[in-house]
TrEMBL record:
One of its GO terms (molecular function) is metal ion binding. Its cofactor is Mo-bis(molybdopterin guanine dinucleotide). It comes from Paenibacillus xylanilyticus. It comes from the Bacteria. This is Molybdopterin oxidoreductase family protein. Residues 6-63 form the 4Fe-4S Mo/W bis-MGD-type domain. Belongs to the prokaryotic molybdopterin-containing oxidoreductase family. It holds the Pfam family Molydop_binding. Keywords: Iron, Iron-sulfur, Metal-binding, Molybdenum, Oxidoreductase.
Length: 687
């Protein structure tokens, strides 16, 4: 494909989005001129989002990094000089060796996430390198750790309703996820269900695009999702809308749960959540009487102090109503049916320190500034922590340390890249070979290079292969081609869903469906300790967590029972969900995507605005003890009073501080050591 100047070539979207769309890249004179959806893809069927329709602008952006560079200005200033790849590899390996010898190899830390979802690049050659080096490990819990943990305590594995089944539901509840912006093909499937009469209910703190599209929007106070789920259970048990036979056969703890939820009366839950008592009863009745009710659990409710419990509580609803046996019924958090042979990919045996120091990525600022054993060198790739990590001001102070050696591998001069000592140009996904799975649908994709590398850019696999060989590590392991790595990753996966997914099949078809035969007996073999759905969890009790779903108020935040008082200096809850045209911090630097989003805004309720004499379009300052940012006010009734919202992870603008994570906390969630982005309080004033 790479050698053909003109034509249309298959590809896959590399972004951290559940849809994992099949793409077609149109090439003229060796350049991509159009990015379109692949109509032959069974799930995404040719439709793609605006973000990626405009992907060519990102690939050929004039500010794409073209060659390796060495910092010549102050940290953060963004001044660099060109160097060769040989010089870059020499400097990095020389520094890593000297840091290892002087301070120990665990003084080196990789920092990465899924800026590009290619498995070889972020769970492959990079892991081999840091294993061989004996570096500290990164606990990668910035995204869905809390929710996944809460779900797993209940269901055992991150598996739920299959996307295409959801069109058979007659009630679809979208809970805490703005799927119009973040999972557009679920919207398409829900529309099919709606045409057959299904009702779509949206539960969220924000009247976002999804809430506007749904039939019934139920706003609630941030972080009170667990209370609402418990209130619904109260009504379902009270009214006999539960499925006793299902609970007997497939669950443990239903009698304890029945007693436990008696205290979550609609009246009490209405007070906590801000949802009217009548709506709680109405929703419970709608859910309990539905033929097939599907709950789509988004990311929003898990990014709280109580995020794991929020998801666990919602996950109990289909279990007490027997919805798992209905076609289209049930729930989904993420669908992780696919998996690879991670030992073959990561080569853990290369590590001489099998229990290295682990640094939680949500606490990178604290780790850089306060770790007992200081971090002396960092390598950042597929992530932009100065924008995406919580408590950004602290993160920035950490990266500014003069004694810290930092390497950044990226497509652009991000806010983080400005702090690099060595800055390396990364290939886009369309320039490299990699393997992609979806965390929503059941197709595995192969991407092969469609265009030549831009400038001297290299993929993660190429970079870590070069570094490994330069360090003198085993050439058989560090000299593997991407194809050899994929073949290894797909061999002996121990996962029956992966039967038939081979390199050869992928090379022939570009995407291959998982073998879903084991799904038929999913409920019979749940990987929980009891083998059943655990409404009561001994494992949680052993870890000091409430074994039954239980509402706990936020560490930082308010609810209807504990509202902000006159002594609260930061009386507003601040939430920073995704916008429509960026994906985390990606696309925040491309003009077309910026234009589509206009500017970073703060949505504030008219009552809160009036109290502060704030008018629409006023420049406002938003602050708390962690930081201070400047936004433009949008007075709106899209949230309940007391909540303010800024969508999108903007980079710092020309002289304007606008990174929302300056205000978010690095506290960890109740389960899974996840991020608590949405449990933050602030005050606002006119600038
Ligand atoms: S970001 Fe999501 S919806 Fe957009 S093209 Fe990629 S996978 Fe599809």
């Amino acid at each position: 494909m790479i050698d053909q100047e003109n034509g249309v070539f298959p590809a896959v979207c590399p972004l951290d989005c559940p849809d994992t769309c099949g793409l077609l890249l149109h090439k003229e004179n060796g350049r991509i001129v159009k990015v379109a959806g692949n109509p032959d893809h069974p799930i995404t069927k040719g439709a793609i989002c605006n973000k990626v329709r405009n992907m060519a602008e990102r690939v050929y952006h004039p500010e794409r990094l073209q060659y390796p560079m060495r910092r010549v200005g102050a940290k953060g200033e963004g001044k660099f000089e060109r160097i060769s790849w040989d010089e870059a590899i020499d400097e990095i390996t020389g520094k890593f060796k000297s840091v290892s010898e002087t301070y120990g190899s665990e003084s080196i830390l990789p920092y990465s996430f899924y800026g590009n979802m290619g498995i070889l690049g972020v769970d492959g050659m990079d892991r081999r390198f840091f294993n061989a080096l004996g570096a500290s490990m990164l606990e990668q819990t910035i995204c869905n750790a809390a929710g996944n943990t809460g779900w797993k305590y209940t269901m055992g594995a991150n598996r739920g309703t299959l996307p295409e089944d959801t069109e058979h539901a007659d009630l679809i509840v979208i809970w805490g996820g703005n799927i119009v912006s973040t999972n557009m093909h679920q919207v398409v499937l829900a529309e099919k269900a709606r045409k057959k009469g299904a009702q779509i209910v949206v539960i969220d703190v924000h009247r976002n695009r999804t809430a506007q599209w749904g039939d019934w929007f139920i706003p609630l106070y941030p972080g009170t999702d667990s209370a609402l789920a418990l209130g619904l259970m109260n009504v379902l048990f009270e009214q006999g809308l539960t499925d006793e036979a299902f609970m007997q056969k497939y669950t443990v703890g239903h009698e304890a749960l029945r007693d436990h939820v008696r205290s979550y009366t609609p009246e009490r839950v209405a007070r906590i959540t801000g949802v009217p008592e009548t709506d709680i009863v109405k929703l419970a009745e709608l859910y309990g009487k539905a033929q097939a009710a599907h709950i789509h659990i988004g990311n929003g409710l898990q990014h709280h102090d109580n995020g794991g419990m929020n998801v666990r509580s919602v996950a109990c609803l289909p279990a007490i109503t027997g919805q798992w046996l209905k076609r289209g019924g049930g729930a989904v958090r993420t669908n992780s049916y696919a998996s690879t042979n991670s030992d073959a990919l990561e080569r853990p045996e290369l590590r001489s320190n099998p229990e290295p120091r682990v640094v939680n990525m949500n606490r990178i600022g604290e780790a850089l500034l306060e770790a007992e054993q200081p971090i002396r060198a960092m390598m950042v790739y597929c992530s932009n922590p100065l924008v995406v990590a919580p408590d950004t001001e602290r993160v920035e102070r950490g990266f500014a340390r003069e004694d810290l050696f930092t390497v950044v591998h990226d497509l652009f001069m991000t806010d983080t890249a400005k702090y690099a000592d060595i800055l390396l140009p990364a290939k886009s996904s369309f320039e490299a070979t990699d393997l992609y799975t979806s965390y929503w649908h059941q197709y595995v994709h192969l991407q092969e290079p469609v265009i030549a590398p831009v400038g001297e850019s290299k993929s993660n696999v190429e970079l870590f292969s070069l570094l490994g060989l330069a360090m003198g590590y085993d050439p058989e392991i560090f000299g593997e081609t991407p194809e050899q790595m994929i073949a290894g990753a797909l061999t002996d996966t121990g996962n029956p869903y992966m039967n038939g997914v081979t390199l050869e099949a992928l090379q022939e078809h570009r995407f291959v469906k998982l073998d879903m035969a084991p799904h038929a007996s999913y409920l019979e073999q749940l990987p929980t300790p009891s083998g059943k759905i655990e409404l009561f969890s001994e494992a949680m009790a052993e870890r000091g967590l409430p074994p039954l779903p239980t509402y706990r108020a936020l560490v930082e935040g308010y609810d209807g029972e504990h509202p902000a008082g006159p002594d609260d200096v930061h009386p507003l809850m601040f939430l920073s969900p995704p916008n429509h045209n960026f994906l985390n911090s990606s696309f925040a630097n491309t003009e077309k995507h910026q234009r589509m989003e206009k500017m970073p805004m703060l949505q504030i309720h008219p009552e809160d605005a009036a109290r502060r004499n704030i008018q629409d379009s006023d420049a406002v300052v938003v602050w708390n003890e962690r930081g201070r940012i400047e936004l433009t006010a949008k007075v709106s009734e899209a949230m309940l009073p007391g909540t303010v919202i800024s969508q999108g992870l903007w980079w710092d603008g020309s002289g304007r501080k606008q990174r929302v994570n300056s205000l978010t906390s690095n506290r960890l969630s109740d389960m899974g050591n996840g991020a608590t982005f949405f449990s933050a309080t602030v005050e606002v004033k006119r600038q």
